[in-house]
Design brief:
The complex is a heterotrimer of chains A (about 300), B (about 260) and C (about 325).
Chain A lengths: L1 H46 L6 H18 L4 H24 L8 H22 L7 E2 L8 E4 L2 E4 H23 L1 H11 L1 H6 L4 H23 L4 E2 L3 H15 L5 H22 L3 H16 L14
Antiparallel strand pairs in A: 1-4, 2-3
Helix pairs in contact in A: 1-5, 1-8, 1-9, 1-10, 2-3, 2-4, 2-8, 2-9, 3-4, 3-8, 5-6, 5-8, 6-8, 9-10, 9-11, 10-11
Chain B lengths: L4 E10 L2 E11 L4 E5 L6 H9 L6 E6 L2 E2 L5 H6 L2 E3 L12 H7 L9 H5 L3 H21 L14 H13 L5 E5 L7 H18 L2 E5 L3 H7 L2 E6 L2 E6 L1 H6 L1 H13 L1
Parallel strand pairs in B: 3-8, 3-9, 6-7, 7-8
Antiparallel strand pairs in B: 1-2, 1-4, 4-5, 9-10
Helix pairs in contact in B: 3-5, 3-6, 5-6
Chain C lengths: L6 H18 L2 H26 L7 H19 L3 H24 L3 H21 L1 H4 L19 H24 L2 H11 L1 H6 L4 H27 L9 H14 L4 H18 L3 H18 L3 H10 L11 H4 L6 H8 L1
The chains are: A mainly alpha (about 300), B alpha/beta (about 260), C mainly alpha (about 325).
Chain lengths: ~300, ~260, ~325
């Protein structure tokens, strides 16, 4: 009788632990998806184009950070900034090569095909530079990998760092749009490109920086994530699809929506993996997207921004 | 029920703004009705609602006695409604002749397999479509453009072809959205003549939005004036021109602009 | 001379040449020629969807895989004979592709892109993880295909089947695109709103485009399993997807002849650089990008001008070229009023 009660209690504790572990892991993954989605949303709002090479910005961010930190011994925080700068530059390259020459003279399909082509070039370059052996690269852990108790939940300390940093990046991003001149220009251009041109904003340049900023956020996300997962040249695409899904769940043009979409997706993935089958972690996001198209075509919040045929 | 097109108490609102409020218009067979009004009066919204590209929040629309509200645009087209657009909508990837033949989509029936196997029925049908398309180009005097790509024509020429394409399947009513926009004075005169010929020779009813007041006054039997989504006048061109409400709407809009 | 070099005659000559390959060439070249036939089917099928109907989708490699798995698994699990498994694989690909895309076809192109991407990833995952059915990541070998009583070895028999399928499907696409179906596709691509106003039911024709391209890719897949004697998930990944796109764009969007040319070039290039994945990614990604940027009408346009071809090139020029003389409304209203 007593033994049975204790057993049940133990079981309950372990279930609680499992739940809290899944929540923490889901929030962490979700924060990463949200960061990837953020960049996609910013670029889409400005240009009406989904950057198909966005995942590669993420992948490059991770690999640059790895090169600076693990190979060259640059301190983590400094390598973060360096990797973000590199991702920013690659975002600008994407604009100059695959968007700007096509945005006026070609159709949306052409622009997207060009971006798909460019993303494969990026992937091939990364594979020859970092992934030639075909193995995944492990980033050195930042802090001890021991779990700690936080607000009564058992969490991996690395996850806390990642989540905290993700929040910092999101706040910095919001402040950038609210406070800086460049951010205001971007917002004005996204809202009304014609009016922006009339008041003397150089729209081409704004688009370029928009691509850069979107890529920089993806790069930051990659550097944050690198210590808790493995890097490979193929990681960009997976993150791109999930970030894209998060953005669509959030309505595609809403930044808070993208963040919420990312977190919902991250939690769903971890819950499906924890309670149904571990194999589902990789694939549940894709299933969710397909169902969302049927039942929630305007996103989680029914936001406008869906253009019906 | 003698009206060929009947719009009854139609209201449309986008995000709390009334684009159309309780608009009713009856169009008699063979009429040319001009719709005018200041920018933002709801003219294009009205056309979109009639052809099924936007849905009204309230009201109903009948075409030739059949209720068409709530149907898909392609279904409404199938019931005999043609339409042209403000910006040219010729298909740039097709020749002018192919554009015209596409206008006969509803008048042709060859399915996928008939088309792929080029059955004799399909080939006869194609020949019939081609002849009809050529005749329709003749009607506007553009036969010599038949093999040019759609986008090789000037803007004004594209507009004319577009009107011819909207007419080719002999619809009961054609909606024209600013047919004269972007045309030179000479072209406007040609358009004037073309619209009269369409009515006279084909007996097709026309409903047109137009900003070129001279054209709309000259060719329309009746003019409907919209302002801020409401119908403020409906009558023959002369009475509408002298209507104080209409003058006020135009002057008011100019004063605000 | 120009008459002689018309696209029809060239395609005819190409298929005659391909027909005699098994009698003249060694096994390796028969295999390469067989790949050319399969990539022609894939490229033409994808071109119907992207080039003609204007629907940007990313599931072509997945359809290819579904065709291969569908046919192979029917043979392996249920002992279905190949003559029945081949069309079944193609039909399974056709149906699953169309059903997947249907909800997104109501929405704008971006959503279609996402759904097809997700579907492609999902398909790949099922192929490599559902071990009991698909034999997992290692793939499987479908049973040998017996062409008896015909005196054909499996490679030659598969070659003959591929030749017949390619010839039939290219002929089918050529005729269908030259008819009202093709016109409805191009109208939908060039202007959805105007197409609707002419009575073209968008959902119906988009679904038809998906069904057709799914059927083409599925047929190619079901043949591929027999040609290779092996089916595994790695052949149907993203790189495969970009190969198809590169072939279509290199050859020429909206041109059947273009897709035939693109497929030939693709297979030749593939044989040169097949060993290195990174090189393939850079090469085919680069070709895709370069053609979109510098020769968006594809190789077929260059040949067309040289040889005076009359195949209608259903290529939509961008807004810059659409109306060179289009004046701005502000400038043009003045003389009229």
């Amino acid at each position: 009788m007593e033994a049975g009660g204790a057993g049940r209690r133990r079981q309950q504790v372990s279930q609680m632990e499992m739940f809290s572990y899944l929540i923490a892991a889901g929030l962490t993954t979700g924060a990463l998806y949200a960061l990837v989605a953020l960049g996609l949303v910013v670029v889409f709002k400005a240009t009406q184009v989904v950057n198909f090479a966005h995942g590669e910005m993420f992948m490059f961010g991770g690999f640059f950070a790895y090169s600076f930190h693990a190979m060259l011994g640059v301190p983590y925080v400094l390598s973060l900034f360096m990797a973000v700068a590199c991702a920013f530059a690659i975002g600008i390259v994407t604009d100059r090569i695959a968007f700007r020459p096509l945005m006026r003279s070609q159709t949306l399909v052409s622009v997207l095909l060009a971006m798909v082509g460019l993303s494969f070039i990026f992937k091939g370059i990364a594979r020859s530079a970092w992934g030639s052996s075909g193995h995944h690269i492990a980033f050195p852990p930042l802090i001890s990998p021991e779990p700690i108790m936080f607000l009564g939940l058992m969490v991996m300390s690395q996850e806390l760092v990642v989540m905290g940093a993700a929040v910092v990046v999101m706040v910095a991003f919001a402040l950038f749009f609210k406070l800086t001149r460049a951010g205001k220009f971007m917002q004005a251009t996204a809202n009304n490109p014609k009016a922006a041109t009339l008041v003397g904003i150089r729209v081409d340049r704004v688009y370029m920086y928009t691509f850069g900023v979107g890529a920089a956020v993806a790069g930051a996300a990659a550097v944050l994530m690198a210590p808790i997962t493995l890097l490979s040249p193929d990681i960009g695409f997976v993150l791109f699809v999930k970030g894209f899904a998060a953005a669509v769940l959030g309505g595609l043009t809403s930044i808070p929506g993208a963040i919420a979409g990312g977190i919902v997706l991250g939690l769903l993935e971890k819950m499906a993996a924890g309670y149904i089958h571990t194999g589902l972690e990789e694939v549940s996001a894709f299933v969710v997207i397909m169902f969302a198209m049927v039942f929630l075509p305007t996103g989680l919040f029914g936001l406008r921004g869906v253009r019906r045929v | 029920m003698s009206a060929i097109l009947s719009v009854q108490d139609v209201s449309v609102s986008f995000g709390g703004v009334d684009a159309l409020a309780d608009v009713s218009i009856d169009v008699e067979p063979g009429e040319i009705v001009g719709i005018i009004g200041p920018n933002g009066a709801g003219k294009t919204t009205l056309l979109n609602v009639i052809c099924g590209m936007a849905q009204p929040n309230k009201g109903a629309i009948w075409l030739n006695g059949t209720l068409i509200t709530g149907r898909k645009p392609s279904a409404v087209a199938g019931m005999g409604l043609g339409r042209t657009f403000q910006s040219s909508q010729l298909f740039p990837g097709m020749t002018v002749l192919e554009n015209m033949m596409t206008g006969l989509h509803l008048a042709s029936h060859a399915g996928l397999f008939q088309s792929a196997f080029r059955t004799s029925a399909m080939r006869r049908e194609e020949a019939r479509l081609r002849a009809k398309a050529e005749a329709a180009l003749d009607f506007v005097g553009f036969r010599h453009f038949a093999d040019r790509p759609g986008n090789a024509l000037s803007f004004g020429q594209q507009r004319i072809v577009e009107i011819a394409r909207a007419l080719i399947n002999e619809p009961k009513v054609v909606l024209l959205d600013e047919p004269a926009v972007g045309l030179s004075i000479n072209r406007v005169a040609e358009l004037d003549e073309l619209l009269r010929r369409i009515r006279k020779e084909k007996g097709i009813t026309l409903v047109m939005i137009e900003h070129v007041i001279r054209l709309v006054m000259a060719v329309s039997d009746r003019i409907v004036v919209l302002n801020s989504g409401r119908k403020i006048a409906d009558g023959n061109p002369v009475s509408v021109r002298d209507d104080p409400l209409v003058i006020e709407a135009y002057l008011g809009a100019q004063a605000h602009a | 001379m120009r008459r002689l070099l018309s696209p029809r005659n060239l395609i005819f000559a190409l298929f005659v040449t391909l027909a005699v390959v098994p009698f003249l060439a060694n096994k390796y070249y028969v295999f390469i020629a067989n790949l050319v036939l399969l990539y022609m089917i894939l490229a033409v099928g994808l071109n119907l969807l992207i080039g003609y109907a204007g629907q940007l989708a990313f599931a072509n490699a997945a359809m290819f895989g579904i065709g291969a798995y569908g046919a192979g698994l029917l043979q392996a699990h249920f002992g279905v004979p190949y003559w029945l498994a081949l069309p079944s694989g193609a039909l399974i690909a056709m149906v699953s592709g169309t059903v997947m895309a249907l909800p997104a076809l109501r929405l704008s192109g971006i959503y279609l892109a996402l759904v097809t991407l997700a579907f492609a990833q999902f398909t790949l995952w099922v192929m490599s993880h559902w071990d009991t059915v698909t034999f997992g990541a290692g793939g499987f070998s479908p049973p040998r295909i017996d062409f008896g009583p015909l005196p054909l070895t499996q490679p030659n028999g598969m070659y003959l089947l591929s030749w017949l399928a390619a010839a039939g499907l290219i002929w089918f696409a050529w005729n269908a695109m030259g008819s009202r179906i093709g016109r409805a596709f191009v109208a939908m691509r060039d202007g959805e709103i105007a197409a609707q106003a002419l009575g073209i039911d968008l959902l119906r024709y988009k679904a038809l485009a998906f069904a057709l391209s799914g059927f083409y890719a599925g047929t190619a897949g079901a043949l591929y399993g027999g040609v290779l004697g092996f089916v595994g998930p790695e052949g149907f990944d993203l790189l495969q997807m970009v190969l198809h796109k590169a072939a279509v764009v290199m050859g020429g969007l909206g041109s059947i002849m273009g897709s035939i040319i693109g497929a030939v070039i693709l297979v030749v290039l593939l044989e040169v650089i097949r060993e290195f994945k990174a090189t393939m990614e850079i090469a085919f990604g680069g070709l895709l990008l370069a053609f979109v940027l510098f020769q968006p009408r594809g190789i077929v346009d260059l040949l067309r001008r040289k040889l005076g071809w009359d195949e209608r090139l259903h290529y939509k020029a961008g807004p810059d070229q659409t109306a060179p003389s289009e004046p701005t409304p502000a400038a043009t209203r003045k003389p009229a009023e």
